[in-house]
Amino acid sequence: MPKKNKPIYLDHSATTPVDKAVLKTMPPYFTKNYGNPSSLHSFGQTASAAVSQARENIAEILNCAPKEIIFTSGATEADNLAIFGVVSALRKNNPAKPHIITSSIEHPAVLEPVNRLEAEGAEVTYLPVNAKGAVSLEKFKEAIKDSTVFISIMYVNSEVGAIQPISEMGKIIERINRERAGRNNKNRIYFHTDAVQALNFLNCGVEYLKVDLLSLSGHKIYGPKGVGALFARSGTPMLGVQLGGHHEKNLRSGTLNVPGIVGLGHAIKFCAKNREKNNKLILKLRNEFIAGIKKRIPDVIVNTDINNATPSHANLSFVGAEGEAILIALDIEGVAVSTGSACASASLKASPVLLAMGVKEEIAHSAIRFTLGKYNTAAEIRRVLKILPPLVKKLRQMAPK
């Protein structure tokens, strides 16, 4: 029998495999050091020490204090806690109608909480993006008004990889907050970024970014699923949204996922330590892949702005072929890709991100998101470049005219 080819995974924006070195750190906290970190006995204190070490690891990478790290079940919960927690606290102290700013291409974990706050009476501005998926700093500045109290802009878009100018936005907000303080305007702006897709590739130091809140997730950085964290700067007003205990400074009730937290703490260290080396490897493969596609397949549109994106992303539209059909055909060949955000992949609607960038609906329907990771190889890229051209040609021939 012919040898079956090993599957190729090109969907790292959806999730990443757990690094073997990370995995090795977790088993003792399932079977040996299994105490509840809130318990006072030695079992509990051993678990608590492991949680504290993970908190310190994360704080070191984010350049913040360990006490500013709140553990969550993932970035979705971290986003919800940041948005609902801060806005609820602000409303408690000031019932006036708050103004919130976000972008039109945020992850649903940001957009849906903001949508709910809007339905409950908040004023919301959804900033547009340009054809490259980036928010204009001019439009950002124009959107801020005296009633603006909360802004959430993602650092990297998960579908096209576009990098937003978070540090520049943070400087603008910092200046406005100083001016407000000078005018005795108590409406301070709190700035949140979802950095889930950025941590592998970019500087996420909170002083560099000038953010008050930052969300991250373990499974996007070669760590375990079901664990994440929220950085919340000291002094940021916040109410807990998950009640029933006194964990995480009364902001996030629930027994801590110690094995997951241990894995997250190690994953973020490895991520930062190997970032430059991994970036070079992934960038080389990604650029060779895009060049190979353009050489071998006509009528391909590159939706990712490779000059302002993570090295991982290659979002391509294969004009005349349906994206879902390409995804299924590639999966049969053992190649895993996506048509957009994994959280919305069950939807057959065109990507809202691509539509927000001005991509025509029929072109958006032909889009495939390839996202590379540190374990991908040049041989895998060559194999995909061999598989894809005849597959796209066949699907174009089959498409209704």
What does this structure look like?
With 401 residues, this protein is of the alpha/beta class. The chain has 2 domains: 8-18 and 275-398, Aspartate Aminotransferase, domain 1; 20-273, Type I PLP-dependent aspartate aminotransferase-like (Major domain) (Aspartate Aminotransferase, domain 2, 3-Layer(aba) Sandwich), CATH 3.40.640. Helices cover 42% and strands 13% of the residues. It has 14 helices and 12 strands. It has helices at residues 20-24, 28-31, 42-62, 75-93, 108-119, 137-143, 166-182, 206-209, 258-273, 275-296, 323-332, 352-356, 361-364, 378-398, and strands spanning 8-9, 69-72, 99-103, 123-127, 148-152, 190-194, 213-217, 228-232, 300-302, 313-318, 335-336, 367-371. The radius of gyration is 22 Å and the shape is globular.
Gist?
The chain is of the alpha/beta class and 401 residues long.
Give the arrangement of secondary structure elements.
Elements: E1 8-9, H1 20-24, H2 28-31, H3 42-62, E2 69-72, H4 75-93, E3 99-103, H5 108-119, E4 123-127, H6 137-143, E5 148-152, H7 166-182, E6 190-194, H8 206-209, E7 213-217, E8 228-232, H9 258-273, H10 275-296, E9 300-302, E10 313-318, H11 323-332, E11 335-336, H12 352-356, H13 361-364, E12 367-371, H14 378-398
Parallel strand pairs: 1-11, 3-4, 3-5, 5-6, 6-7
Antiparallel strand pairs: 2-8, 7-8, 9-10, 10-12
